[in-house]
Amino acid sequence: MTSPVGSPSGAASDPIIVAARETSGDADGAPDGGALAGAAVAGPAVAGAAVAGAGLAGGAVREAAGERAGAAPSDSASRLQVLLVDDDRTLRDGCASVLQIDGYHVTSTGRGDEAIDLLKRRKFDIVLVDLYLTPISGMDILRAALAAHRETIVIVMTGNPSVATSIEALRAGAWDYLPKPFSAQHMQILLGRASHAVAASRETRSFRDQLVEQHGNSDRITLLGVSPAFRQAVELARKVAPTDASVMISGESGTGKELIAQFIHRHSRRAGRKLVPINCAALPEPLLESEMFGHRKGAFTGADRDKAGLLETANGGTLFLDELTEMSHPLQAKLLRVLQDGVVRRVGSEQQDAVVDVRFISATNREPQDAVNSGILREDLFYRLRVVPIKLPPLRKRLEDIPLLANHFLAHYWERHRPAGDTPPKLTDGCVEFLRSRPWRGNVRELQNVIEHVAVIAEPGRPIRPEDVPVYDDPATHPPGEAVPAAIMSDAYHSAKDKLVAHFEKEYLQRLVVRAGGNMSRAARLANIDRTTLYRLMEKHGFRRDELSGTLE
Ligand SMILES: Nc1ncnc2c1ncn2[C@@H]1O[C@H](COP(=O)(O)OP(=O)(O)OP(=O)(O)O)[C@@H](O)[C@H]1O
Ligand SMILES: [Mg+2]
Question: What is the pLDDT of residues 246-255, one digit of tens each?
């Protein structure tokens, strides 16, 4: 279907992408009006004439504002300044023509020194640069573009798209890469997505300005930690936040992966748009697929209307793929396609339903490389999603953070649970030492729960001693096998397994609901499952919430 740019046959039969403007505002309270919705796919194609040598005559630097073609990608394109740098004149002129027809204001040059000079003098929204330029390389131009304007979107074109070079460019701040040869359509889709990102970034800037005006600062995430290992992770998060690079966060349960994801989103150019979380472990495959991709009416029993998925909801914003390694292989393959070209196809659909511009942040409790080695995670998806890896250290490896976090949680929960005016208690040195000595297998979340418990029962103004700190069951101290009733072990394998799972689920639910003080939303959060799953499990075992905890939410 598609023809490489530079080929005279062009892209005559390619469908082109037309962006539509969303009519409703952003539910998150982002400023209204700029949201470019998922694009509809429409035929017929931009003429093949758009490619191959249809460029402008003259010197090394050429400039032209394109006529708005009827099917240009977006209203905002005509206002966008694009710099195109490639020493292959045919390709350069071909690309420039396609983009001008689509309404971009294009400046092109074949020389690196001229490109750097231009970048210093003028602000470009999008820079499309060949990675293999000499004597000044595409990487040099990428760095110069970002040094001049951090917000500039740089797309690198690579004739030799090895994973290593592309990843290197993405790590250095490139927004995406375009492997050569590419079709006019491929470039148009990519530039369409880039324009959405520019629009979102402009909105975010005005949103941030508003916040700073109202509250003095826009940073509402409390990320505490002084240990070098934690600070290093936060610094990396801060550095990568303004780029569109995919981030993979790994770390044990409760180390703050979701918090880091929120921090990155809040500091990104997409902060005014949504951060949409999806827990890949919480739903069985068909449900997860329809949650993520949406579905068409009649796609399955109960699908009584068309429904957009979370990928479309996250358009212009960030999708947080929690527990990524729990995603099935077919879904990983489907997700990879969205990462490659932004095209979303709803379940039961015969066509491409939307083109989305989404930034991906993923998280996992496993070691991601191990998940790849053992075949759980597709390698190509891993490389796409792990452009920047962030590893969060377990709490037991950052003991310096324990006093800070414990005092913060104590103040927080004291304020929440106790009447105003009650004198807050203080943690004794002995208590802090005791806290530092615990294994904290549940990491910050476990510490948070323990301190909440302390805040609820402590006497106002009385110091908190080690014996006031509840010690929850530590599974590591249980003798092996104790949790498994002996009778089960002599049953047939499948029946024994089912009984054991049921036994575990019951035991787990009982403890969970007690831990969450009877609050189901909190229980679901602690267990990292959604509330529907929690209710289903409780129903399965005949539990009533009030029986378990004595309290209702
Ligand atoms: N550095 C921190 N400063 C303040 N609060 C923190 C910090 N790290 C984690 N928390 C708090 O600890 C709890 C657990 O954090 P979070 O949900 O981000 O962990 P997680 O790694 O995603 O856990 P899981 O793997 O179980 O999903 C949250 O309530 C979060 O606010
Ligand atoms: Mg989490």
Answer: 999 999 999 9
